[in-house]
């Protein structure tokens, strides 16, 4: 047992923060550079959020919980009001937002789009700009980008602009500590929300994806030898459930390489996927000891076995 309470300094700060930015902006790499350990949250933890926790930064005087903001990462799949609602809802729940903009690329429409959405947030959520990948530019280029980013903030986050603009390189570690420090100062005064140590639910997520993978391969192993990857995207406790009868929504993507394989996994009229879902659900319910709703999606990720970026994303 830890004695967290007794040893917590008086001005300890703890809270939730989220990195946003267009694809490739460096969010995941920065998250990994800041966090000692990867985690994913399930139903049985304190202070459960509806977001996937990507990691927790434990510092002497603070704790930062890095959460995902679904939606902003893939604006093209969500239209208009739905996106606005989602952004307000999810980012309304974090204590600060880190907006990642690569130092080596001109500010583009994707960045402006996100900045505009951030500008629509209630003014209480501080937004800091993180100019990422500074190792790829020279000092003059970096200075120019810092100015451009500051200007973007003044234009689209009027009247306040960004709470801070911090250059960082996750690759060589430059200013990674500074990012944590700046974010920590924006967290509310609070004892740690998660215990140090026993952090990870990742084995649980792995077991769940394995159960689904096994069920999905049953009977079609020859047709789908190594072409199936299963990723548990989110596990979210269902709201408004009685405490003695909880339920967890589990969203899962099954990745295959070719459309023909997708057809095999889904089966005629979706019957096969339904059977896979039923079988896996029972096993997962036994594993977790709670009711679940299993949401399975089959996606084609072309040649994912050969693409390091895709592999990374699928947890290989
Ligand atoms: N040189 C350099 N490359 C970086 C740095 N941070 C990230 N990258 C590279 O930039 C690419 C994208 O980084 P990610 O961390 O995956 O970016 P992301 O914003 O999470 O991307 P999505 O998952 O597509 O939203 C990868 O190839 C990284 O290796 C950095 O500090 N320096």
TrEMBL record:
Entry's Gene Ontology BP terms: ribosomal small subunit assembly
InterPro entries reported in the protein's UniProt record: G_ERA_dom, GTP-bd, GTPase_Era-like, KH_dom-like_a/b, KH_dom_type_2, KH_sf_prok-type, P-loop_NTPase, Small_GTP-bd
Protein origin, superkingdom: Bacteria
UniProt-annotated stretches for the region G3: 68-71
G5: region residues: 168-170
Region (G4): 132-135
Cited NCBIfam families: era, PRK00089.1, small_GTP
Function: An essential GTPase that binds both GDP and GTP, with rapid nucleotide exchange. Plays a role in 16S rRNA processing and 30S ribosomal subunit biogenesis and possibly also in cell cycle regulation and energy metabolism.
Protein name: GTPase Era
Protein's gene: era
